[in-house]
Amino acid sequence: MVPHRPYELKEYDPLWRRRFLAAAEELKPIFGDNLVEIEHIGSTSIEGMIAKPQIDILVVVKKLDVVKDCYESFIRLGYVPRGQGYTRKGDEYFTKDSPEGNRLVSVHTLQKGNPRIEEYKTFRDYMRVNKKDRELYASTKRDLYASYRDNYAAYYSGKTGLLDSIQIRAKEWKKRIEE
Q1: Which residues have a Cβ under 8 Å from the Cβ of 167 and sit 6 or more positions away?
Q2: Cα 152 from Cα 14, distance rounded (Å)
Q3: What is the rounded distance in angstroms from the CA atom of residue 78 to the CA atom of residue 99?
Q4: CA gap 58, 56 in Å, rounded
Q5: How far apart are the C-alpha atoms of 58 and 40, rounded to whole Å?
Q6: Cα distance between residue 117 and residue 63, in whole Å
Q7: What is the pLDDT of residue 159?
Q8: SS3 for 37?
Q9: Residues pairing with 111 in the sheet
Q10: Which residues fall within 8 angstroms of residue 39, CB to CB, at 6 or more apart?
Q11: DSSP H helix total and E strand total for the chain
Q12: Exposed, middle or buried, 55 (CB in 10 Å: 0-12/13-18/19+)?
């Protein structure tokens, strides 16, 4: 179950892109030669999307098992290592929060070849071009926030069914554009 933490929703802010770029630059030296790519994912990467103003970052590495050797470097930059499998099996997850407990950055680290890499990117790319699902998702987030402003776990779980169905449409969309 997702624990409660303070959160808020904000209208899209073009500064989110700059915050991603700054975070990516500070993260690159930590991963060094193990780094394959860094991508901006999540709602803050989708122009026009309402979002929690936290920057979600996908980091693809050659070898996931050596990422734990970088924990001290993350800690020095204010990130909390959550370990492998914190969000899902097969990842290393790091977070940076404000002093008030609001999430600023989430770093999802996956080993090259993990199928979730393409899932994250496909969802993002699909939502960038599909106005109908983008508006549906934004509306759902607004409704959930109105009902569960003080219950992050309920807000998060309320999105699950819709996210699953959008993910299916995103995969179908990707198949069609690759044909």
Answers
A1: 119, 123
A2: 25
A3: 11
A4: 7
A5: 6
A6: 14
A7: 95
A8: strand
A9: 61
A10: 45, 57, 58, 60, 120, 121, 124
A11: 5, 5
A12: buried
Q: Which two tokens stand for residue 24?
A: 């990516």
Contacts of 35 (CB under 8 A, 6+ apart): 28, 59, 60, 61, 62
Residue pLDDT, tens place only, 20-45: 999 999 999 999 999 999 999 999 99
Give the tens place of pLDDT for each residue, 45-61: 999 999 999 999 999 99
What are the residues whose beta carbons fall under 8 Å from the beta carbon of 178, sequence distance 6 or more?
none
At position 93, the amino acid (one-letter code) is Y
Q: Look up residue 7 and give its two tokens.
A: 């959160």
pTM: 0.92
Which CATH superfamily hosts domain 15-178?
Answer: Beta Polymerase, domain 2 (3.30.460.10)
Distance, in Å, from the CA atom of 142 to the CA atom of 159, rounded to the nearest integer, reads 11
Other Cβ atoms closer than 10 A to 5: 14
Does residue 62 contact residue 111 with C-beta atoms inside 8 Å? yes
The Cα angle at residue 114 between residues 5 and 120, in degrees rounded to 5? 50
Residue 152: its H or E element: helix 152-178
Across the chain, mean pLDDT equals 93
